[in-house]
Amino acid sequence: MDEFELIRQYFSDLGQDSSGCVELGVGDDCAIVSPPAGQQLVFSIDTLVEGTHFLPGTPPQQIATRLLGATLSDLAAMGARPGFFTLALTLPESDPEWLAEFARPLAQMAERHGVRLVGGDTTKGPLTLTVQVHGWVDRGCALRRDGARPGDAIYVTGTLGDSRAGLESLLRNLPHDDDIAYLQRRFYAPEPRLATAQLLTGQASAAIDVSDGLLADLQHILTASHVGACIELDELPLSPALRRFAGEQKAIEWACSGGEDFEICFTLPPGHEEAVLDSLVHHEVPVWKVGEIRASSGLVVRNSAGEQAVSARGFNHFSEQTES
Length: 324
Ligand code: ADP
Ligand code: MG
Fold this sequence. Notes:
Helices cover 35% and strands 26% of the residues.
């Protein structure tokens, strides 16, 4: 199959243009998009390289859902609505079966989240996949990292640490049971928290998606906002599957420092907590208060044993204590 045939077959009609802004999609030299009135364009790009970001032989379905899930999560972190995306594929060969298995879940996910594939590039070489997503926010309403203030509450969506446990079970090639199936899904099919984060615009003072671990990502908010924070270890949301798989200590460690949860960490000024929690009462994704922004610089974690400073490189002291 040549490049044009391949594009036509798998990528010419993929996803959904929920914002109705795409004038011209795949097929011409460029795509054409008309920005909705009063909106700002936000965009982000992510690349997965075989051998670096996923193991050789990873099923194409899993690559597709991780790639688009991770990129859409960046839009979520800004409180943006998805609009359209482009896809750069570098493939060692044009394997129709691989492409079909890659395109199908990509299309399903793009439909579900209302984002349309409008173009891309296809080249031959070591397997590398890049997605650039574009979304819309009301002018001036994007959730940024630099607005957290002392006294703001720190919240997270969903549960933390599952993805790290899913990766662990893949690396150890553990036999499947219900818990492991759930944890692995959390690893390779992250659910971008788009709807939840959109409810936070105009309310949250800062937000970030958790891709490198809660403490590392929260640190980005603290740096950008020139503040410190305290995290309550006993308040971290842990799934029952993670608790059973890893035990309490390891679960807390992975909730703090495991990567790729793609939950949203956000801060709420005191006056906004009630309104946000009310708006989320019937929402499908739970949110949890896990700490507080402080005026003093630095990040500390706290449990019944006391407070402990987190170093710049993560939660080293804690992991040493609890390494099993
Ligand atoms: P050009 O040589 O003009 O850059 P290409 O031959 O690279 O064009 O691509 C032809 C059309 O197919 C363009 O509209 C481009 O956006 C689209 N396209 C190429 N590769 C992909 C891909 N992997 N996914 C989606 N669209 C693609
Ligand atoms: Mg051209």
